[in-house]
């Protein structure tokens, strides 16, 4: 675990990789605030002809909506460069599960999940439609429900918990999928509970773990990227702020890894004896690379 | 573990006890439906001069409001017979913690908690005031917060999770109390997620367990009842529907225990090899005792 500080170290790191996979929240930005020098550092990589992918556990936006965010904050990105846990969930249901056309998915989560499911031709309901106040009365079963997908949901309510619980309790053969297991995510200069926390009432009440978790550190998204773009893992680096998702993902996938300290992970946690997940390198912020363009 | 079915068994059970502690949801009623013959069975115990207490993990109503419910469903009860996890939480803060007068409690839960806290002179906020839609923007810290209390909350939302998380994350010395840890509770002929499930996002995001859980199977309420009413534990029986709260509570408190099958626990679970919490007796329903009054 080497901290990159000098121009020599930063340059040598860039030169030894062809491809960079980026986590977004906590690395490029936090909410709508882009971290200092991120645009310049990203431009440097583009100017050197590096391949760039964005690999986010954020399931709240579809990839198309995520691309709008890149435009809004003025960072270059193309649709085929964006991989999200919501899209990974939809792809998993379509290609791995081969989810039947006569079944539908109940979604506890935001528009990113329902839009990605619909884009893959998978019927779904819930999501934003179940936001707001609802009487928690008797919840009828729906025999068409074949799966429940849970992701970060800032409109979570008791009705959604009861509905998801009822479907999975009534028929344990129904699939229970979690877009990602991040316990927190960085926002407003602090952290808030993430998808992995929001889903725990269901695990506790059902006495059941999800059948699959699609986001980092699970390797689904990496496998898709490597297969589609024929990359050499040894010349690919995962850049992220979370040890138990981003860095674990890169390490387990055989990539080099770079941890930035602008998000969830602080230097004392990174260096603590309790920490078993070590990146290959770490750096104060991704913007540090911008110094090389001077 | 003996199943009581004959009049002889039922009679002998009653005669060998002076005092009966009752769980309510799943034993006497489910929602607003009183189970068959419960009124008659309760009247039989009263006519035999038995002492009766209601020991509920339900924190949604204050004891005064709970008494209204008894009146509404026409089951005799007095205020001093009712013990709830909300009241136990307020008593714990007042007498055990000696919660400072210049501090206040943030409540994730229903009116039962805020009303019981206020009845003990403990300042609190949140509760029903934080129901409904709220922007989850930056959450300012409040130095007056000394504790966060979480109970079942059918108005749970992301704002409350973020607020509770923020207070406990900002200052780990703040107390984190859970009224009760029931993962589910019986309602509408099925079960829904309980307080112990609703609280788990905080435990997961904070990587922290509550400092205290006040409801059954913790013995706080039993200690209060035994001390106030000078009861003989050997002649006292706990009647409940949940193994990991009611029956564990009675067993650990040195009482005899009776499990009813009208609530969360089904006979196959009770008898399964995995079940380590065995009641002294069990019966299909508490209403079965009404047959003795014929």
Automatic annotation (TrEMBL), chains A, B:
Q: Could you tell me what reaction this enzyme catalyses?
A: 4-nitrophenyl phosphate + H2O = 4-nitrophenol + phosphate + H(+)
Cellular component GO terms, alphabetical: cytoplasm
Q: Which residues bind Mg(2+)?
A: 23, 25, 241
Which keywords does UniProt give here?
Hydrolase, Magnesium, Metal-binding
Please state what class of enzyme this protein is: hydrolase
Q: Which Pfam families match?
A: Hydrolase_6, Hydrolase_like
Q: What InterPro entries does the entry give?
A: HAD-like_sf (IPR036412), HAD-SF_hydro_IIA (IPR006357), HAD_sf (IPR023214), PGP_euk (IPR006349)
Q: Which residues bind substrate?
A: 216
Q: Where are the transmembrane segments?
A: none
Name the residues annotated as catalytic in the UniProt entry.
Answer: 23, 25
Task: Name the Enzyme Commission number(s) assigned to this protein.
Answer: 3.1.3.41
Question: Which GO terms of the molecular function aspect are on file?
Answer: alkaline phosphatase activity; metal ion binding; phosphoglycolate phosphatase activity
- Quote the record's cofactor note: Divalent metal ions. Mg(2+) is the most effective.
Cofactor list: Mg(2+)
Name it.
Answer: 4-nitrophenylphosphatase
Organism source for this protein?
A: Mortierella isabellina
Q: What lineage, starting at the top, does this entry show?
A: Eukaryota, Fungi, Fungi incertae sedis, Mucoromycota, Mucoromycotina
